Amino acid sequence: MDTTASTGTAIDITATPEWQALAEHHTALRDRTLRELFAEDPDRGCRLTRQVADLVVDHSKHRVTDETLRLLLALAERAGLRERIDAMFRGDHVNVTEDRAVLHVALRAPATTDLVVDGQDVTRDVHAVLDRMADFADRVRSGEWRGHTGRPIRAVVNIGIGGSDLGPAMAYTALRASSDREITARFVSNIDPTDFAEATRDLDPAETLFVVASKTFTTLETLTNATVARDWLLRGLGEGTDEGAVAKHFVAVSTNTDAVREFGIDPENMFGFWDWVGGRYSFTSAIGLSLMVAIGPGAYREMLDGFAAVDEHLRTAPLAENLPVLQGLLNVWYTDFFGAQTHAVLPYSQYLSRLPAYLQQLTMESNGKSVREDGAPVTTATGEVYWGEPGTNGQHAFHQLLHQGTTLVPADFIGFGRPNHELGGGDQGDGDMHDLLMANMFAQSAVLAFGRTAEEVAADGTPPELVPHKVMPGNRPSTTILAPQLTPSTLGQLVAFYEHTVLVEGVIWQIDSFDQWGVELGKVMARQLAPALTAEAPPELDSDASTTELVRTYRALRGRA
Ligand SMILES: O=P(O)(O)OC[C@H]1O[C@](O)(CO)[C@@H](O)[C@@H]1O
Fold first, then answer.
1. Catalytic annotation on 469?
2. Where does the record place the catalytic residues (predicted)?
3. Pocket residues: Cβ below 6 A from ligand 1
4. What is the pLDDT of residues 421-451, one digit of tens each?
5. Phi, psi torsion values for 60, nearest 5 degrees
6. Claim to verify: residue 414 and residue 276 sit in the same structural domain
7. Dihedral of the CA atoms 216, 306, 86, 274 (nearest 10)?
8. For 226, how many CA atoms within 13 A lie in the half-sphere containing its CB?
């Protein structure tokens, strides 16, 4: 049953019998410990571990019973989750506030998929762009595409921000082992001049290709950096270099052909996508071009196939066996019933160091909402704060709070069976470096879940006054995701898994996970304030007293009156 009445007004999900049943169940379960749940159900570790594509997902260390899962699934049914998933794949306008389809899944669907939406043959258009991207990437990689002076391209610099940066930047770091390193990729996002300066300081303009990536092609940071890049190029190529050189060193990725042309990039050198691809869901659109140039079209297509495997699972698996669905429902369980406000992502892989930053935009720009899609205020908590760092570094920084702090932080541990580098180490008979890394990961989730009681601590001979300090409360939930190895395919699977958990949470919370109105006002105000920072005469500001004073101080620091 859908919660949306034909008037377009949603019923309050917290007023449904399914929500009430969960609230009562939570009261009964909240003091049960994971120790007890494991003791009562020895098969739990195996039973609550499932697989999607190559990802083995262990949900056993969650504060749930079979009854919890049954009730969460009933809530999902009530919220119309299955119908919403089908609607998304069909191309219905599930982004209601922008009246758009949400079709990032079409970006990695096989060429045989039949999908016509709003009169557009989506699959044909997607594969036409992918083929153009592959052709371009091959030409750059082989040296056929050359810079203005005839030199081959050695560096590709992606200029973009948010969804036009984080996906390819995260994946480039993640897939360094898959890159042949012939071509280096750099990512410039921040309007802080430092970003551009550092990214290009050792690059030769004659061998550098800029990919200006912006869905709207109106984003201040990106257009400013692109202008700076054009100057850097023309200056670097030497006196008298004409604008014609730009064509050999700049390509654009956008949905906005007119703005690309106006900026001075020939639409011939533009790779398009469509308004049904949200910025933070655009990584598998042409926004991935810089990544494709760096890792090659073959590895890139493997990554898309990884995404597609998890998309297909979302589309076809029953909700009770659907892993992104279960993960999303568990997130709702902690956010709304346990009052958790944050969610830690702990990849035991240095290559995944940018994954938490990528997930911050994906999850928080999507679900950081306090108004439902029908315009009424939400009646639930929404949107966890995502954060994290690769293990084991995090262990030596913030895990203290995870283990003994007063806030509940559900965590995701992500690890791999095989390392990307075999470097030995561990000569005490305790395995190589990768074994030690993974032993740490398993130890952390076990300690979080099961802790150590005062009796156990005392039994070790701990002085009584220290016992309370050394007690480990345990009962702290986590998901563990294990994959055979970090490859383009498993990376794609992992990202698709997270993309779909966001959808699931948004459906329960009755919000539009695909708009981002909350980022607009700050952009408008920045544009209004900029002239006041640079004006020759002290500006008359119509701002609040704090902002006025900050502008005054800044001008003084810059030596302006
Ligand atoms: O790709 P664009 O249009 O430059 O936008 C960049 C980013 O800015 C945002 O609109 C937020 O400001 C994101 O949603 C988007 O990914």
1. no
2. 365, 396, 523
3. 161-164, 214-216, 219, 222, 279-280, 365, 516, 519
4. 888 776 666 779 999 999 999 999 999 999 9
5. -70, -25
6. no
7. 20
8. 28
Number of domains in the chain: 3
500 is catalytic: no
**Rounded to an integer, what distance in angstroms lies between the CA atom of residue 435 and that of residue 136?**
40
The helix (H) or strand (E) run that includes residue 24 is: helix 17-29
Q: Is 148 a catalytic residue?
A: no
For residue 294, the CA-to-ligand 1 centroid distance in Å is 23
| Gap between the Cα atoms of 530 and 221, Å rounded | 13
176 CB contacts (<8 Å, ≥6 apart)?
351
* Of 4-8, 63-67, 340-344, minimum mean pLDDT range: 4-8
Determine which one of 67, 321, 523, 549 is catalytic.
523
Decide: 147 and 106 in contact? Cβ < 8 Å. Answer: no
**355 lies in the same domain as 459:** yes
In angstroms, what is the span from residue 97 Cα to ligand 1's centroid? 17
Query: In 82-163, which ranges are E strands?
Result: 116-117, 120-121, 155-159
Indicate which residue of 36, 262, 321, 396 is catalytic. 396
Same domain, 177 and 196: yes
pLDDT recorded at residue 8: 58
For 184, the enclosing helix (H) or strand (E) is strand 184-188
